[in-house]
Amino acid sequence: MKPTISKRLIFDHFANKTSPLQRTAIENWLTDRDNEELYYQWLEEWERNHLQYDAPSEIALENFFSIVEQEESARPEEHISFYEKLANWTNYHAGKIAAVIAIALGLAWYNRDTITYISYKTGYGEIETFELSDGSKVKLNGNSVLKLSRWNFGETKREVFLKGDASFDVEHLKNHQKFIVNTPENFTVEVLGTEFTMSARKFGSKVVLTNGKVKLHYKEAAKEKELVMKPGDVVKLKKDRPMEITRTEAPETYSEWENKRFVFDETTLEEMGYQLQETYGLEVTFSNQAIANRQLMGSFKGRTIDEFLQSIAEVLDLSVSRENNKVLFTDH
């Protein structure tokens, strides 16, 4: 019979009082993302009520004086005050103390993201939809990450961090609380309630507004700028280049990756290669620069990535070969 996962059982687990069978059941229970959130809430409650570093002071003090006495017995007798003994002992063991502190700080730093943020991730070629605690829905393209605060998301503002591609359907709240999307590519999207698609990749970023209204904050020539976007606006951002804004009558086509479809608008094969590298983990190369500069226009779909590559090659009258994650385009 499987153990029932209760708050009491989880608290016993934190106190190292669970059996191997119970620990296995807890591990299986934690594979559900909702259970993982509940687990961290109970962990916070348990830690508040159980000081993990409440050392047995009487035993520690007794051991301390024992060490001091042993060290002093090897010296010629002389009157040394308690504070002098404490200073001498601290100096003698300073290296060990520093090492323990460094290890503790290192572990805390290493696990800071897990403790501080909820992370939603997709692997290469995966597309997944997630619902946030405020009711907003986010669909992530392959090799994308969305992070948000584990403890205060929605308290005063809704702030998330995106790396990759995502489509947002932001829930409008009665208090008109802002929804802010930060990226590592020097731009931020600020919204109330709206639908939009955005990409934050090293090779270039893009924001496409479907419905509603968003404000784009970005840097250009080291200056902070902002732009209020309207439905149908397409903004492209690249490092060391001016912001580019165009209009489209079909903004929904820019989220066609949700249906495993690629849409290109005067996109070079080299830029397409960057996209495939970011989204599918493919290393795309070309036999010459002329091929890399060839441009793509239109919508392409393949049931598999190999079908997609073959369709690109046929349209441009090229040859394509693939070995594991390496792709090569050549002339016939």
Key words describing this protein structure:
332 residues; alpha+beta; 4 domains; three-stranded mixed sheet; globular
Query: In percent, how helical is the residue content?
Result: 25-40%
> What is the tally of helical segments?
10
CATH arch. level architecture of the largest domain: Sandwich
Q: H/E element string? A: HHHHHHHEEEEEEEEEEEEEEHEHEHEE
Count of all domains:
4
| Shape designation | globular
Question: What does this entry show, briefly?
Answer:
By secondary structure, this protein is α+β, with helices and mostly antiparallel strands.
Folded structure, characterized:
It is a single chain. The relative contact order is 0.06. The protein has helices spanning 7-14, 20-29, 33-49, 57-73, 82-92, 94-110, 112-116, 269-280, 289-292, 305-315, and strands at residues 117-121, 128-131, 137-140, 145-149, 158-169, 179-182, 187-191, 195-201, 204-211, 214-220, 223-229, 233-237, 244-247, 261-268, 283-286, 295-301, 319-323, 326-330. With 332 residues, the protein is an alpha+beta fold. The mean pLDDT is 80. The strands form three sheets. Strands 1, 2, 3, 4, 5, 6, 7, 8, 9, 10, 11, 12 and 13 form a 13-stranded mixed sheet that branches. Strands 15-18-17 form a three-stranded mixed sheet. Helix content is 34%, strand content 32%. It has four domains: 7-52, no CATH class; 57-110, no CATH class; 116-254, Jelly Rolls; 260-330, 3-Layer(bab) Sandwich (Phage tail protein beta-alpha-beta fold), CATH 3.55.50. It is globular.
